[in-house]
Amino acid sequence: MNAAAPTEAHAGLATLRDAWRGLALRWAALAPRDRKLLTLGGGVLGAFLVWTLAVAPAWHTLRSTPAQREVLEVQLQQMQAQAAEAGALRAVAPVPAEQARAALTAATERLGTPGKISLQGDRAVLTLKGVSRAQLAAWLAEARAGARARVVEANLTQSGPGIYDGSLTLGLAPGAGR
User: Which of 56, 125, 169, 178 can bridge 153 by disulfide, Cβ–Cβ 3.0-4.6 Å?
Assistant: First the structure.
């Protein structure tokens, strides 16, 4: 810093003091009625600023907290259910490769002509043409339960209301594709 900085600060303080003195003189020159009106206006403005900057945001937070808490509780319950399901699925023993293939083939045969399965090592590709939502859900449940297969890639398009075309790539449980 240079030596001029303290001088500038003193000059700024002197200017501020002069301005304050000017305001005090103007205040003293006002009629008592005008002083009361300005004091009331300042109080109203101050109350508005306190409400806008401090009270209203806190009030909004207090009002919205119960709804947010309910949403978070529901999300927590869903996550706990998913964690329990994942734990249960991890506890299920993998099925032998031949049994997994047989389960996928049987599920696809029950699906009918809209589905074709291609088994490729530890992967299976199901090609679909005109399968309903219910058929697809049932096939996925059967593939998960019977073959311990999980979808690793899905390429589906909706060809009509609740009707799907496309393909699903499934990963077979460790040991099932060997």
Answer: 169
Contacting residues for 117 by C-beta, under 8 A, at least 6 apart: 104, 105, 108, 124, 125, 126, 127
> Where does 92-174 have alpha helices with state H?
97-111, 133-147
Quote the CA–CA distance of 135 and 109 in Å, as a whole number: 12
Q: Please give the Cα distance from 152 to 150 (Å, whole number).
A: 6
- Answer for the pair 133, 164: CB distance below 8 angstroms, yes or no: yes
Q: Give the model's confidence band at 31: pLDDT under 50 very low, under 70 low, under 90 confident, else very high.
A: very high
- Is the pLDDT reported for residue 130 higher than 50? yes
pTM beyond 0.70: the answer is: no
DSSP 92: S
The tokens of 23 are what?
């305001």
Q: Which two tokens stand for residue 19?
A: 């301005």
List the one residue out of 53, 143, 154, 52 whose CA is nearest residue 99: 143
Tell me how far apart the alpha carbons of residues 38 and 152 are, in angstroms, rounded to a whole number.
72
Q: Is 97:176 a contact under the CB 8 Å cutoff? A: yes
Cβ burial of 102 (10 Å; 0-12, 13-18, 19+) is: middle
